[in-house]
Amino acid sequence: MNDTIVAISTALGEGAISIIRISGDDAIKIVNPLFDGKNLNEVDSHTINYGHIIYKDEIIDEVLLSIMKAPKTYTKEDVIEINTHGSIAVVNKIMEILLLKGCRMAQPGEFTKRAFLNGRIDLTESEGVMDLINSETELTRKMAINQISGKVSKLITDLRENIVALISNIEVNIDYPEYEDIEVVTISKIKNEVKMMKEKLLEILKLSEDGKTLKDGIKTIILGKPNVGKSSLLNALLEEEKAIVTDVKGTTRDIVEGSIILGGVKLNLIDTAGVRKSNDIVEKIGIEKSLNLIDEAELVLLVLDASEKLSEEDKFLLDKTKDKKRIIIMNKIDLDVNNSYDNDIIKISAKNNVGIDEVKEKIKELFNVGSFLSKNLTFFTNARQIALLKSAIESLEEVENGINKQREIDMIEIDLKLVWEKLGDIIGANYTEELIDDLFSRFCLGK
């Protein structure tokens, strides 16, 4: 990290302003000769300075230049941000000059990677930065802010400190049994501490898994036999003509997808092919896809026809989805309504946009969205973090097994150290170069 990197930090394209970010030991040395304004070696840190970028006696652009001197910067290196007019030609020309003068084009996420490697933020906070950039809902914004602020990391650092204190007491008791003024660490005490840590991690895990579902979007399939109005329901929920709607059975032969923000949470909707017996090879493939999606779905919207009695297909799908989180919807209430259905079924007319709001409210109720949004949202939200949480819990269970089987105290200590290491993996206290390269490669350029 001895070189100085540069990237465009704003979206490419025409706009009022574009920002070019430079970070590294030579940032001031490279930019100062190009800046017709105050001497950047003499200005105060964290100031904005007016001037021009000049190259070979030609004015390239009128700019505002922000200078932030190490170590109190995002990367803990000298950082300069050049605010230019948002012309593609201007931005490209300044980038070209900076590269000629010694900067290197930054890799995706390299500014945040340097912030991590220089110790300004930990791995969980780094992932929070990426989540904030990608946030589409109020929920994901709040969760990302909590990660960036260090609140989520503190859950782990506190537990690691507890483990260190426990291990230290164990070692003192082993090495200096003759000392009378030290706290005696009994198996009972270790067992109680481990139990409390496990309960805390299980609580964090449950919240994290629910949070990940809401963050990634609830995978929702619209299921039913042909011509019950699945595509009409999709269009009504999306408020656009996403799927083709006809009176011909089997119109939808493959999945059609769309997404909406519902109560601050993303809903990933999938309209499936109507389920029925068919000899059409293309339709059969679509039906097979529909049935396979049931296992993957986090929510099933099962659509029935209000003007018909339950068919064999309806009964099959009711049984097939009985163990899933689902909402049963009776569509076409504008036709001859079959009143024999249960009161728990939501009655709608997708064609006339009747009852759609009730469906949306039921979804929010099923996933407890309102209550979830009111929580402090301090938990983990990606697959890497959750997998490591589960692994740490398994290691704690090994400690419990060791205690129950009356293993030697030094063996229990080894298992506790393993838990400490796995918790450290979550926040990046331990990491491999391959992990870091992979994680930051997913960032956008310039962050």
Entry keywords:
6-stranded mixed sheet; Rossmann fold; 447 residues; Gyrase A, domain 2; 7-stranded mixed sheet; alpha/beta; Four Helix Bundle (Hemerythrin (Met), subunit A); flat; 18% strand
Provide a descriptive summary of the structure in words.
- This protein has 447 residues and is α/β, with parallel strands linked by helices.
- It folds into 3 domains: 5-117, Gyrase A, domain 2; 151-213 and 382-428, tRNA modification GTPase MnmE domain 2 (Four Helix Bundle (Hemerythrin (Met), subunit A)); 225-353, Rossmann fold, CATH 3.40.50.300.
- The protein has 15 helices and 13 strands.
- The strands form 2 sheets. A 7-stranded mixed sheet has the order 3-4-5-6-2-1-7. Strands 9-10-8-11-12-13 form a 6-stranded mixed sheet, sandwiched between helices.
- Strand 9 (256-262) and strand 10 form a beta hairpin.
- Helix 4 packs antiparallel against helix 5, helix 6 runs antiparallel to helix 14 and helix 7 (187-216) packs antiparallel against helix 13 (383-404).
- The longest helix has 30 residues, at 187-216.
- The radius of gyration is 29 Å and the shape is flat.
- The relative contact order is 0.12.
- The model is unreliable at 243-254 (pLDDT under 50).
